[in-house]
Amino acid sequence: MHLYLPVALTSINVLIPVGLGLAVGLLSGLFGVGGGFLMTPLLIMFGIPATVAAATDSNQIVAASTSGTYAHWRVGNVDFKMGLYLLAGGFIGGLVGVQGIKVLNAMGNADFVIKMTYVLMLGIVGTYMFIESLASMKKNKAAETKPAKESGFSKLLKSLPMQTHFEKSGVTHSALLPIIFGGFVGILAAVMGVGGGFLMVPVMVYILRMPMHVVVGTSLFQILFNCIEVTFLQAYTNHSVDFILAVLLLIGSTFGAQVGAVFGRKLKGDQLKIILAVIVLVVTVKIVFELTLSPSLLLSQGGGH
Amino acid sequence: MKFKTRIFNFRLLILISLAFLMAGGTASATLTAKANHDHITIDFFYHGSSVSVRGVSDPGTDLIVKITSPEGHQTLRQKGKVAGLLWMNVGKLTFEHVPSLYFLHSTRNLTDILSNDELSKYVLGYSALEAHTEVSPVSGDAEKNKWFDEFVKMKESSKVYSTSSGKITTTTKDGLQEYYVLMDWPYQAAPGEYTVTVYAVKDNRVVEQAESKVSVEQVGIVKAFARMAKESASTYGIISILAALGAGFGVGLVFRKGGGAH
After folding, report:
1. B255/A66 touch (CB, cutoff 8 Å), yes or no
2. Interface touch A298/B238, C-beta < 8 Å
3. Are the beta carbons of A254 and B247 closer than 8 angstroms?
4. Which of A101, A294, B33, B81 could share a disulfide with B55, CB 3.0–4.6 Å?
């Protein structure tokens, strides 16, 4: 069955957005990412204009992350305190990032810088997570974990002011740490035009040393707020949110997020990390291919990256 | 004075008679055009439509059926190679005086039935459209030609540009030629008013023209949403967010009740 989308001005087979929503929602519930890095290009591939695809995806993520946060919160896997600090940082970072895009546009090579940053970030994060989780899976098999040696970096973190305990995550950090790194992810996410879940998850795992299951719930919590803000701004300034498309997507994604959350509890943290790493690497390879193979069309409508 | 007035009146009479004669002349050549589906409504289940154009013409004339939207300008992102290796957006190109939809069907190949002057006069065919279009920034005609070809390729891929020859069927009846052409109307064509122009062609010249309209309009829910997204953007944004929050919570609750809790 086909439905007409009033803002995208195109017609789509309803099974496509519902199916895409289900798949991406599943990833969202499992790994705590919004999945924009998968959803937006897929929607464009199915004929949705780039600006509408990005804006509508953020509306859909509001639903998927509400569903996912709720599922994780029920089993006590959302660190609200940490989430709020990250959000504060992310908000400031977003403002800085938007200014950054203006500077890049003025310099005239915005697209090149954005694409390169995106590919490098995906590649580095994916590779690091893959190697690290593989190593820790082997270590777990071989022997009991020995207490981690304190590195210079973690000593430096301990010496920062405003140390506070995050109960849910079971870690003690300076409050500045999530604000600074939240801000850093916020800048990159704004520049790349993505939600940044694939960056926020590694930051929480490797820098904030949070347990993977709490990472997923907390990440979804802060993604929820980011996407509410983005949806409103897109609807208000660009008129690019397609409500019908969003509803079709969220039918699948809210359901997928629940299934993902249930399924995620059955997997170990390292298993989750390594699967996410593989997905991020596959997306990296796909983008590298897109950049190097001759495109079939050399012209496109404005918007999107 | 009187004599001059008489001469003037006489001349006027001749002119009027001539005009009548000429009008009579056009009346005998009876090109007509009618689009069967001239009001297309876009509702919730719209997935494109079809439009047929039919009419009569003098026997022995070739026919060209053109459907276009009003002309406008379009700014598109332009892909190019960076560092000799990577394809990415390298700039923007503006196309002036281009329609967003351009369908052209003719009984025979355009270049076989019309001179280049006539083709460009009536903007018939991609070559004539290219000459009519301004592309900027481009360094010269070769580059303009390259990017106009890319423009047509993009438009054809979204089904809003199309040309054919031989698709129009003609039959002779009562000394007149009846023609008929059926075309798919793509769902990608935006709401608006489209002009159908039929040209009768003889001896390398356009001898007659007739016009009709096709209007495409959103109705019902589609119209309500499209209007709200533009005119009450903040309410629309808030409703979209609330609906998403509600759906997320709703599904969460269903899962809990369904025994999904662990």
Report:
1. no
2. no
3. yes
4. B33
All structural domains of chain B with their residue ranges: 1-30, 31-217, 223-252
- B77/A300 CB distance under 8 A: yes
Question: What does the pLDDT look like over B156-177, one tens digit per residue?
Answer: 998 999 999 989 999 998 888 9
Q: Which of B78, B86, B89 sits opposite A292 (nearest CB)?
A: B86
This model of the complex carries an ipTM of 0.86
Report the predicted TM-score, pTM, of the whole model to 2 decimal places: 0.82
Structure tokens at A44: 């464009």
- Give tens-digit pLDDT for A225-274: 988 988 998 899 888 899 999 999 999 999 999 999 999 889 888 888 89
Interface list for B 34-63 with A (CB within 8 A): 42-48
Domain topology for B31-217? Immunoglobulin-like (2.60.40)
pLDDT in tens, B172-222: 988 889 999 999 999 999 999 999 999 999 999 999 999 999 999 999 999
Dihedrals phi, psi of B116, to nearest 5 degrees = -60, -35
| Three-state secondary structure call for residue A168 | coil
**DSSP codes joined into one string, A176-196:** HHHHHHHHHHHHHHHHHTS--
Comparing alpha-carbon positions, the chain A residue that sits nearest to B262 is: A75
